[in-house]
Structures are given as C-alpha cells and as structure tokens.
Design goal:
By secondary structure, the chain is mainly α. It has nine helices and two strands. It has one domain (34-175): Hypothetical protein, domain 2 (Endonuclease III, domain 1). A two-stranded parallel sheet has the order 1-2.
C-alpha cells in the first residue's frame, strides 16, 4: 500500500524524497540551518520544487553552503554567480547570501550557535500542529512575524514572515504534516 503524504507533496520523486526525509524534521546543525536560510530566500516568489531541482547547482555555486566562505565573497564572485544559469540569478538574492552569511556569524558569536538562537524561540521543542487539510496551514504566524522582525533587525535579508514560516516548517521548528500523513509524529 502506498504511503499517504501531505497534499502539497506531488508525485515528483524529488518532492517525495524531500517530504519523507527532510521536511519537518528538526535541524540543529548550523551549516544545515544556513543552507535552508539561503535556499528559502532564493525561493521567494518561486515554487519550492524549482529550488529543489537547482539545489545541487546552488551547493556547487555557493561552496557547499559554507557561510564562512560566502561571507568573504568579493564583488567579482557575486557577479560571477549572476552568470550561473544553474541557480536563480536575481541580483538582490545573490547579494543577500553574503549579507546573511555575515549576519549569521554575528548571531553565532552572540549566542554560541545559530541553532541556540533559533530554537530558543520555541523553547527548544518543535511546535506540533494538528492540521487535517493543507488549506488550514497558515502562511505566517505571530511567531514567524516575531522571528522575521528579529532577523531583519540583525541585518538578514529575504526573511519576511512567509519565508520564515516556510523555513520553520522545513527545519522542523513546526511540524505541519497533515494528520493523515505517514510522517506525522515520527
């Protein structure tokens, strides 16, 4: 019998793998959290499947999502990225990768890790929601508004409340798997 998944998960094998193995699973590793911040920022205005299909290109283009390297990118490197057809070539999004890497490291300095900073917003425990249908799932919450505002105050770009809520779902701060999904409560 086939596993029942969240409604948003199409039959695309890439989406299924992402849904089953990553989405909603708590992430505490700073490197992975940075990868998701970078990818969610690039996703703004686009579909997530577009980003998933380009994820390996992003990984190559952005030095394996190494925020320490990205923070040191010079103008030539940033301009070079704008020519890379394998990624999203939006100038502001590319510039935000460096800006966010610098802000990310400032948060690490202040809190010991980005993970400690982030997970403190949910008292180190995922928020478990009990949605029956995809339509019930909000695009933003008071908490995503709060985190978004704090990230912006710290210099992050492309971290509006909708992007932050999608990020929270992706890194498991929020479990928004539908009640009928086999991943619920794993």
């Amino acid at each position: 019998m086939e596993k029942k998944r969240c409604q948003w998960c199409s039959d695309d094998p890439l989406y299924i793998k992402y849904h089953d193995e990553e989405w909603g699973k708590p992430v505490y590793d700073d490197a992975t959290l940075f990868e998701f911040i970078l990818l969610e920022g690039f996703q703004a205005g686009l579909s997530w499947i577009t980003i998933l299909r380009k994820r390996e290109n992003f990984r190559k283009a952005f030095d394996g999502f190494d925020y320490k390297k990205i923070a040191k990118y010079n103008d030539a490197k940033l301009e070079f990225l704008r020519q890379d057809a394998g990624i999203i070539r939006n100038r502001l999004k590319i510039l935000s990768a460096k800006t966010n890497a610098l802000a990310f490291m400032e948060v690490q300095k202040e809190f010991g890790s980005f993970s400690k900073y982030l997970w403190a917003f949910v008292n180190d425990k995922p928020i478990i929601n009990h949605w029956k249908t995809m339509e019930e799932i909000p695009a933003t919450t008071e908490l995503s508004d709060q985190i978004s505002k704090d990230l912006k105050k710290r210099g992050f770009k492309f971290v509006g409340s909708t992007i932050v809520y999608a990020f929270m779902q992706a890194v498991g701060m929020v479990d928004d798997h539908e009640m009928s999904c086999w991943c619920k409560g794993e």
